[in-house]
Amino acid sequence: xxxxxxxxxxxxxxxxxxxxxxxxxxxxxxxxxxxxxxxxxxxxxxxxxxxxxxxxxxxxxxxxxxxxxxxxxxxxxxxxxxxxxxxxxxxxxxxxxxxxxxxxxxxxxxxxxxxxxxxxxxxxxxxxxxxxxxxxxxxxxxxxxxxxxxxxxxxxx
Length: 157
Fold this sequence. Notes:
By secondary structure, this protein is mainly alpha-helical. It has helices at about 35-50, 60-65, 80-90, 105-115, 120-140, 150-155, and strands spanning about 10, 15, 95, 100, 115. The protein has one domain.
């Protein structure tokens, strides 16, 4: 369950997240600091860590843990509550035709069941985070797949 923290307020029986999204967006609704991109990168990294290389039995995260190495995670400045919501919701679904992300109705039902009053842009970000997770869950099956957090660094060098 998404915990109620000081960044949330109670209003009319529902938890209302700060409209600024813990500094994720400014008053006009824009993301001036690229914090949404940071959340997408964090979700991609979690998907990559959850992936299993083809013909292997353990996930990448399990391999890090077995080696005694720390998991390579993204430092999040703002909006962690959205990533927490994605993890609580479950970023992927198994359908008869493969994996997919939760549909809009499922995300809305999740928010309603947990008493969360998300703004429209927060619903869009949650869905975007689910898509990023699934994309890297699939990409991570390739044994030569570079972790998402290292891709940008290599391009900068």
